[in-house]
């Protein structure tokens, strides 16, 4: 088998894995609550859990979305009783966002899900030799750089 055939054998599974990951990222789950949560919602809960009492501006920055989008997302999470909005004690107009007990449950269960996923991935890669793992690492960064560049080019 020549180099092009071998390279294709690497690229095709990578593309399939990427599509499957994108599909996984579109699925919903309750994360131990009575609410079906979309990925964007649980990712927002995750950031609020990482940054308790965060502001809308900071939350938007963490999520890399506009403040308007963050506001809409928080409104959805308030309706689902996952977060509350209160005024920051040091300001009359600055809002802070806090997880409710239901939000804490979703946050905790999502963290457990991520740990479970990581453990499963580790079990897949664990049998590989150090050289094989180093080879994967070596191609990961240039691949990531290529994708970032393509996203940037399309965003113009």
TrEMBL record:
GO MF terms held by the record: DNA binding; DNA-binding transcription factor activity
Protein source organism: Oenococcus sicerae
Listed Gene3D superfamilies: Winged helix-like DNA-binding domain superfamily/Winged helix DNA-binding domain
InterPro entries assigned to the protein according to its UniProt record, in alphabetical order: HTH_MarR-typ (IPR000835), WH-like_DNA-bd_sf (IPR036388), WH_DNA-bd_sf (IPR036390)
Domain HTH marR-type span(s) in chain numbering: 10-145
Entry keyword set: DNA-binding, Transcription, Transcription regulation
SUPFAM superfamilies: Winged helix' DNA-binding domain
Name used for this protein in its record: MarR family transcriptional regulator
């Amino acid at each position: 088998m020549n180099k092009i055939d071998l390279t294709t054998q690497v690229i095709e599974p990578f593309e399939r894995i990427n599509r499957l990951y994108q599909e996984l990222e579109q699925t919903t789950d309750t994360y131990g609550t009575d609410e079906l949560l979309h990925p964007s919602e649980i990712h927002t809960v995750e950031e609020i859990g990482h940054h308790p009492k965060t502001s809308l501006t900071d939350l938007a920055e963490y999520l890399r979305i506009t403040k308007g989008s963050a506001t809409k997302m928080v409104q959805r999470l308030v309706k689902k009783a996952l977060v509350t909005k209160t005024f920051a004690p040091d300001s009359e107009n600055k809002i802070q966002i806090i997880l409710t007990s239901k939000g804490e449950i979703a946050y905790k269960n999502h963290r457990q899900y991520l740990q479970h996923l990581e453990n499963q991935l580790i079990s897949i890669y664990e049998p590989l030799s150090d050289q094989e793992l180093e080879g994967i690492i070596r191609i990961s960064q240039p691949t990531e750089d290529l994708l970032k560049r393509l996203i940037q080019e399309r965003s113009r």
